[in-house]
Design goal:
The protein has about 80 residues and is mainly alpha-helical. It contains one helix and two strands; from the N terminus they run E-E-H. It has a two-stranded antiparallel sheet.
Length: about 80
Amino acid sequence: MKLFGGFDTMALKQHFGKKIMELEDEKRTVQQDRDRLLAEVESLAANSDGQTQKMQDVHTHKLKALEARMEFHILV
C-alpha cells in the first residue's frame, strides 16, 4: 500500500468509495420521495379541479333556480 501524506491510499479509496455509494443511495431515496410527493400534489390538484367544477355547477344551478323564481315573482 502506498502512503500519501501519512494515509494509506487504498484505505482512503475504500472509505470514500463507501461514502459515495451511501450518498447515491440517499439521493435515490430522496428522488423517490420527491416523485411520490409530486404525484400526490398532482392527484390533489386534479381532485381539487374536479371539486371546483362540481361547486361551480352547483352554484350555476342555484343561480338559475333563483333567476327562475325572480322571473316568476315579476310575472305574478
